[in-house]
Amino acid sequence: MPERCIILIDGSNFYFKLKEIGYHNLTGFDFRGFAYHLKGSSILQKATYYVGAVKQDGTTKINRLHADQQKLLAKIRSDGFRYKLGFLLKSNNVFHEKGVDVQLAVDMLEASYEDLCDRVILVSSDTDLKPAVKKVVSKGKIVEYVGFAHKPSVAMMNCCSSSHLLTKTEIGVFNTTP
Fold first, then answer.
1. pLDDT confidence band for 97 (50 / 70 / 90)
2. CB burial class (10 A; 0-12, 13-18, 19+) of residue 176?
């Protein structure tokens, strides 16, 4: 029987890693192609993108960020992904994403305990997910860490079943904007 997989992308983590290698516009990213690249010969059960929701507050900057996020979410949906929203908490003029890691961890555990997949493809370098990863692996599932070659998480590489480190050239294939 072919292997079943799910793809879980920590949106903020993904965005900032892409930004570090020069890609700034996720609305020009081919998420569908990226998912098919990651899944290989596995059957893709679902792909989910997790991100903190931008709440409008009437300011020009926040309204622009909200509009940009809505475009991104529409693009993600059109590429066959689901999305789940956390929220953004502003503290000392800096936004902190809340609730995303918990949703991601719960989805990993649910997929494991309900036998919804054989492999979890986790696109996140967030070490807060290590306890969930360890539990999923202990249930006999494969957890593949997908990180970036320019800044890999050794901790995630050590706790996951396998690793795939994306290079700028590899990821560039999915960037459809100049």
1. confident
2. exposed
